[in-house]
Structure prediction request, 161 residues.
Amino acid sequence: MNRSEWFAATLADFGPGRILAVRYEGPIAALSHAARATGTVIASWLQGIGTVAGLDGQGRYDAAVVVDQLEHMPADARRHLLVRLRDLHASRVVVCVRATVAREWPANDWRALQFLPGQPLDEPGASYSTYAFDLATYNPERTWNTPEHWANPGNFTTHRW
Prediction:
């Protein structure tokens, strides 16, 4: 699978909605074509973000896709970008990054940000790693975290924040 096919599959998985696409050097024609083919509205393309300040003024989206962006940022700025996208701008975030850059972070760092590894992509001359965050599935409901397992079940919803 190449990046264009991955992008099309990702958009199809998202379904219709507002998507924020972050890419260092503008939209690729194949990515735009994949968006049109799946009926997905890419609400905004952000290009060449160097710091999280580049996200100022962006609202909330159904999902965010980061392609060819992290390779052009220092490690701390990458982390801040992913955290800000995850926390403020989208409940689902997917990332496609060169495998060499992805290996700079240990797997524990990706997991600490709640990004799970996806399918690796191979293209002539480059390999890519994919990661995904989905707010709906990253923290599944556990049986012990219910009112019947609390000392005062009546207070389960009143004193919880």
